[in-house]
Amino acid sequence: MGNNSVATTTQALQHYTESFSGLEKSAANRELSWLRKLRQDGFARFGEVGFPTTRDEDWRFTSVAAIAQTPFRLVRNGHTLPSQKQIEPYRAAGAACQLVFVDGHFTPELSWFGKLPDAVKVSSLAAQIVGDPESIERHLGRYLDLRRDAFAALNTGFIEDGAYVHIGRGAVAEEPLYLLFISTAHGAPTMTHPRNLIVAEENSSATIVEDYVSLDGGTAFCNTVTELVAGDNSVVSHYMIEREDTQAFNVSTLRIQQARNANVASHSLLMGGALVRNNVHPVLAGEGGECLINGLYIGNGRQHLDNYMLVEHASPHCGSRQFYNGILNDNAHGVFHGRIIVHKDAQKTDAKQTNRNLLLSDNAQIDTKPQLEIYADDVKCTHGATIGQMEENALFYLRSRGIDELSARTLLLLAFAGECLDRMQQGPARAHVELLINQNLFHLAKRLPNRARESQGTDVARSVEEVG
Amino acid sequence: MSSLEIRNLHVKVSDHEILKGIDLTMNAGEVHSIMGPNGSGKSTLAQVLARRETYDVTRGEVAFEGKDLLAMKPEDAACEGVFLAFQYPVEIPGISTAYFLRSALNAIRKYRGQEEMDAIDFLPLMREKLKLLDMDEKLMNRSVNEAFSGGEKKRNEILQMAVLQPKLAILDETDSGLDIDALRIVAQGVNAMRAPDRAILVVTHYQRLLNYIVPDRVHVLVDGRIVRSGGPELALQLEETGYTTETGARRATPA
């Protein structure tokens, strides 16, 4: 980057300031002082640090210059909504409800609510802030560390709308609560900062799906933050599906706060977007917590899919398991950064991390990096990463039994992705994800060159960074 | 018409000639054995017949039931009735053995214009063959060959053969690494497959397997050429004298 691009970046930041002042004047909930302060602090923090560069260790493999240099604008209300027909393909089967957000704004005309248990509340964050500000103030922004994350700070500066999910004490939401985020095309590049708050009280149980899609293309930047608060003994499954088009920028942050004996599963499926950063940050704050961090990223073309995991063990007797699989084709670039911090008091921690990658072309690239920081002395932490190509031996074995080459390739891809599926509970959310994966991989298998080159999977040398 | 007819087959692997002119004719109903020392080209021959594409056939012809085998893709050869029991069966994580077997059978049935079998129809067939090979049904729910013992992997090969009912079965060192009980079971599985319309080619380093599967013909492969052919007694002879004399004999023959 030369001086020229620095100037462009400064100009682009000017757009954020203008958008921020606009929001401050027009936001429906602008009279709430705590919220105003939260926004101001967030935006001020973003102003101080600006966008990260690849000199920042947490962003070593991902340049966000393309985001920094684009003058994105907020989409204000009053534009035309997509039709029912346009979003028909994105309807979720078997869900309890589907909240639709168009360019970051809750859109009741396109949303629907099935029969929800009394103790389960699903609404827009904006409405909940007006209706019961205390329920929001108690949690919103309490778990994010804005100092270490410019995108979370930026999102906080632009808090306006998103989803609010509250699962009351002992309540069980059987069917998934489904949130659909749609970016639509506008003449100019647009940005949205959806902010979601999910609170699962003691002994409750729920499945929440966030699905990010785009209509009609166009350059869009979606910077979303979800705070998930899992109370004592709660069981929560969270799905994040990124399937926007290949012009989209998507940065998502899932911040999970787990209380005693809470059991949370985070499942991510990244298939879309030009530049995607998927942050998953659970903090196991109460004893006996269990966290599963499961994900699959499938990259084609020039897609850049970055997964940044930060698992913090802050209490004793907690378990965390990270499993991410990546399939990368063409010039796609995948990143897996798996950081585990075991704090001083978190004795008897059992943390496991596995990242497996399948590279389908010579130009596909993966950077995988484990980072273990252990400050307790009685813990078990393991990690491993593999990078391989589609095994010619396996392909020949299948073909020698009569299975044609395309089917054999598809089978092997599905088997690799199936490892991630197997970690999801049976149900409509898993079925939804499975369908998306199958469609994607059937298509991908067809695009692969016909004859496999003789190649073998290789175990990558394992590097450990331990501190303390 | 013979089942398999190999004429002057030359095969290279990365510029290194492995097979240097193989001639072999097998009729349906026959069991032939190819014996030879390590590195003589036995496995190369087996893999070429199963149409592995990484081998470079430089000369020669192979006819399978009158059709040009060398023009076939591996899946087409399999659908035509060629089966290779692998020396090193491949592990495929994430695909269950039962699903793999049924997919293979259905691919072949489809090719032959037969109706595909659903899981319910397939189960009794699979159970019958499992019994033949004294295999635990639990293996069928596990990923293909993953965490199978050496003996289980070899039995799994013969199980596949029993399910797919090929017209030409090639067994590539199926006996290696088997204890005597497993060897007996595998041999019993192969013998049960002997049929007038099927040819079986047993590739082995040791004579031991041939005590259980008695071949009609034995061929000795040394340095990419068949140097001697004979009846089952040839295998016993080799057991005593080893391959060294065969190598010597070949060298003595004027080129």
How would you characterize the overall build of this protein?
The complex is a heterodimer of chains A (468) and B (255). With 468 residues, chain A is an alpha/beta fold. Chain A is built from ten helices and 24 strands. In chain A, the strands form two sheets. In chain A, strands 1, 5, 6, 8, 9, 11, 13, 15, 17, 19, 21 and 24 form a twelve-stranded mixed beta sheet that branches. In chain A, strands 2, 3, 4, 7, 10, 12, 14, 16, 18, 20, 22 and 23 form a twelve-stranded mixed beta sheet that branches. The model of chain A is unreliable at 1-5 and 452-468 (pLDDT under 50). Chain B has 255 residues and is of the alpha/beta class. Chain B has one domain (4-252): P-loop containing nucleotide triphosphate hydrolases (Rossmann fold), CATH 3.40.50. Chain B is globular. Chain A binds chain B through residues 391-394, 396-405, 407-408, 411-412, 414-416, 418-419, 451, 454, and chain B through 50-54, 73-75, 77-79, 83-84, 86, 89-95, 100, 103-105, 107-108, 111, 143, 160, 164.
Helix fraction of chain B by DSSP (H/I, runs of at least 4):
25-40%
CATH superfamily of chain B: P-loop containing nucleotide triphosphate hydrolases
Radius of gyration over C-alpha positions of chain B, nearest whole angstrom: 18 Å
Report the end-to-end length of chain B measured between terminal Cα atoms. 32 Å
For the record, the count of structural domains of chain B works out to 1
Greatest interface and its participating residue counts: A-B, 25 and 31 residues
Number of helices of chain B: 8
Low-confidence stretches of chain B: 249-255
- Give a quick account of the main beta sheet of chain A: strands, pairing sense, barrel closure: 12 strands, mixed
* Secondary-structure element string of chain B: EEEHEEHEEHHEHEHEEEHH
The geometry of chain B reads as: globular
At CATH level 2, the architecture of chain B is 3-Layer(aba) Sandwich
Instruction: Give the percentage of residues in beta strands of chain A.
Output: 35-45%
The spatial strand order of the largest sheet of chain B comes to 6-9-10-3-11-12
Give the oligomeric state of the chains in this entry, treating copies of one chain as homo and distinct chains as hetero. Answer: heterodimer
* Estimated helix fraction of chain A: 10-25%
Total strands of chain B: 12
Instruction: Look at the structure and give the CATH class of chain B.
Output: Alpha Beta
